[in-house]
């Protein structure tokens, strides 16, 4: 007989992402709808260890669906990496009578949740966990989409569109660094969306001559007088690339590192809607007695996957889109556009 879920915790962990609040809201509202109590845990795993929690009701999550960041705060926790730290967290879960826990974050968040659930089981306590993928990098292997990616892309595109205006006026080269510590999803998606002259991603080894110099020369020969190079931070430093462009091509580029502006802002409709569906699914899975799952999107559908298996999954990088980028910018049109 499955133990009925009566009370769950919810937390956000790792790098924050626009849409996390929409997910928290959906978790709380769905729990209430299903007769389950919900406890908010502030500051991620650190907060659980330090009993930084509060009861959440429908009003706790009013007017947050459109807010960036996370009302539960987030933090990285070294202590939680150790069994002794997780034992403290477990004591708090027992004190609160938590049957389940929804963890919103990235791979590291899910690994911590799974370790906590296993440590609970070893201690004879049932704590079922469900992960909701939220990171602007979109680099979680089991899910085609992660909350925050669309908002971050739109933020970056808006910034680069503004940069293009002044680069066009001064007939300059702009080198823009976008986030993506280990992944080029942001850089490639944004690069296509702004018609970048060149895009550098960690998934493809960088050859300066092939990937930058030759593309700029070809564009210039086709009559283009301003150039946009988008670099994923995991592929290199925009400052160093700017210096090489100056030394080897003779342009005088301007370098912009977009940084943490990509992590903020009001979530787009896509992020709000996806987060709402994922939050709803997370609580539905928990109350159906299916724990230790990750909520993911696959081909536009919301699915729940075994957490251990999901953490081993890899998704193939859409390198075919790199070819599209090259085709659309290699001719270098004379038009005022890209
Ligand atoms: O959330 C992912 C991410 O934004 C990466 O793209 C970036 O490199 C990293 O977080 C920055 O981490 P922090 O906010 O700890 O500086």
Give a brief outline of the structure.
The chain is α/β, with parallel strands linked by helices. It has eleven helices and eleven strands.
Notes on the structure:
The chain is elongated. It has helices spanning 20-33, 44-49, 83-96, 107-122, 149-170, 185-194, 208-221, 238-249, 269-287, 307-312, 320-330, and strands at residues 7-12, 37-41, 53-56, 100-105, 128-133, 173-178, 198-200, 227-232, 254-257, 293-298, 301-306. The longest helix has 22 residues, at 149-170. With 338 residues, the protein is an alpha/beta fold. The protein has two domains: 7-148 and 267-298, Rossmann fold (3-Layer(aba) Sandwich); 149-264 and 318-328, Rossmann fold (3-Layer(aba) Sandwich), CATH 3.40.50. β1 (7-12), α1 and β2 form a beta-alpha-beta unit. Helices cover 43% and strands 17% of the residues. It has a seven-stranded mixed beta sheet, sandwiched between helices. Strands 7-8-6-9 form a four-stranded parallel beta sheet, with helices on both faces. α3 (83-96) crosses α4 (107-122), α5 packs across α6 (185-194) and α6 (185-194) packs parallel to α11 (320-330). 6-O-phosphono-beta-D-fructofuranose (F6P) binds at residues 15, 135-137, 179-181, 233, 263. 6-O-phosphono-beta-D-fructofuranose binds at residues 15, 135-137, 179-181, 233, 263.
Helix fraction bin: 40-55%
Which residues sit in consecutive blocks of at least 5 with pLDDT less than 50?
332-337
Number of domains: 2
What is the name of the CATH architecture of the largest domain?
3-Layer(aba) Sandwich
Per DSSP, the total helix count is 11
CATH class of the largest domain: Alpha Beta
Question: What does the radius of gyration come to?
Answer: 22 Å
The count of β-strands is 11
Mean residue pLDDT: 95
